[in-house]
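The records we work with from here on pair a chain with its fold. The integers have meaning only within a learned vocabulary of local backbone shapes. A complete example follows; check for yourself that the lines match position by position.

:::
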Amino acid sequence: MANLQRLTERVKRMEDWVKENDMTGGPQGVLDTFVLMVNETRASTNLRVQAQQTMNNLRNLAFEFIGQHELTEEWNEFLQEKENAVQEQSAEEVPLQEEAESGEEAVKAPKESKKESKEAKK
């Protein structure tokens, strides 16, 4: 008897849900929305795969061109210069953060005296 009552309540909740969602086309509208989302996901995946294939083709053509015109030494020098520039940028010092990002961190941070804060600003 308890199982029958529980099932009756579930069916009632489902019927209420269907009534609430009639504006969106009911269950068929929700299903149509999910089908649309799946199709859009497939389409974007296909576009990504095509873009990746195009990029690989361009890369292969560029390497073929470099090889045919004997530009490998110039290419390697160019790459070495770029690598050195990136390493120099990453070695720069990051400035220290003076204030806490949230109120919780500010509560946990030890309070500094006025003398310490003046010295830190110098």
